[in-house]
């Protein structure tokens, strides 16, 4: 069973993070499958204009619980491999020619919330839990930071990342992290569909060109920066202070 | 006129720097700005962002009395155009030092944060204000350019809003500042802003230091403003002593 699945129905595609028993936490295997799905979409875009809109969501109750930290603690080389894989997947997701919507069905935490930030649009419900609690664990949300700076601006991103913690979907909406927030989980799929349909009214060529321009001017295609962000984060994870903190938190 | 204190909270230390000249609405003299800068460095243990062990876990910058800070003490500039240059330079250095501190910095913007007082908000990591606070950069009225705060302001609110705020000498409310991103939390009660800022600082200081220090350093690297800040200071300094500024400032004392 693939840990990241892709379904395409005409102009609309859905990527589902599919590791529900671990709240879709980003393991190396999941990220490998996610890369596979994103590569397929990039390949397809060379010959087909469709899909025009891609929804990203999570199987089960969570959207994505973030980095699989247990895997990180076991192997000293794992952090950099994992973080670099996330950083590169983020660029692949950002540079999809299709417009992307994160449909945040439940918890979107740390690197999981980072994937939300990379998407063009995000939609959630009032009770979801979102945010970047990295600093609470003694680690650094370096991979996410450039995307959050692009999304919210430097000042808001700074306050959000340094304060850490989690917020409700309602708060995430007030702070600009998501485009839209519906009252309950029950209404999310219909609202996501509705947003997708609105976006599908745009002409595909115009959407592609516009998205491409925005990616160029906000630095989204900077692979070197993404790789360095993985290194910055991995260096913090390698410190004894951070490792001791994580061991204590993860039991 | 600048007081400094520290307090222990749950095994960490929080520093507090208070602008303490309430009879002048905490207006800055060049000496006060130099003191703020020195205290920031002292509390931070002389450390720059490159070091991992700041002496305090977080720093609160606040003002005594009814207002956080009304900007520069312009009475010093009445007969002395050098004073304004010293004030602008001192302000730029304080903002830069706030960024360089490894410890996160929380500003309690209660009452008023005007001109140079408003410029300080751009150097903070978290700003707390209240609905009715008066905030803004009305100095173009006086022939003074607020360019010195431009790069930092733009990081907070975006270039479009920064343009409006710097060119329009009208003050905005704390609530508007929050909506624009110049403040990160807005409460109802002006009298509780300083306590709230201390609570936020305690919360920040309670987090493991390795993550906070690395995150602030990385954010600084991602959003550099030093080159622009040099140009911005230079722009503000260029106008110092101009006939326009001399006339406008002189007019302040005539009425």
What's the helical proportion of residues of chain B? 40-55%
Share of helix of chain A, binned: 40-55%
CATH architecture term of chain B: Alpha-Beta Complex
* The CATH fourth-level homologous superfamily of chain B: 2-enoyl-CoA Hydratase, Chain A, domain 1
Report what the structure shows.
The complex is a heterodimer of chains A (251) and B (255). With 251 residues, chain A is α/β, with parallel strands linked by helices. Chain A has one domain (4-200): 2-enoyl-CoA Hydratase, Chain A, domain 1 (Alpha-Beta Complex), CATH 3.90.226. Helices cover 51% and strands 16% of the residues of chain A. Chain A is built from 11 helices and 9 strands. Chain B has a 6-stranded mixed beta sheet, with helices on both faces. A 3-stranded mixed beta sheet of chain B has the order 5-7-8. Chain B is 45% helix and 17% strand. Chain B is α/β, with parallel strands linked by helices. Classes of the chains: A alpha/beta (251), B alpha/beta (255). The interface between A and B is medium-sized, with 32 and 28 residues.
In a few lines, what is going on in this structure?
The complex is a heterodimer of chains A (251) and B (255). Chain A is of the alpha/beta class and 251 residues long. Chain A has helices at 28-47, 69-74, 78-94, 111-118, 145-152, 154-163, 169-174, 188-200, 204-217, 223-237, 240-250; strands at residues 4-9, 12-17, 53-58, 99-104, 108-109, 121-125, 129-131, 166-168, 180-182.
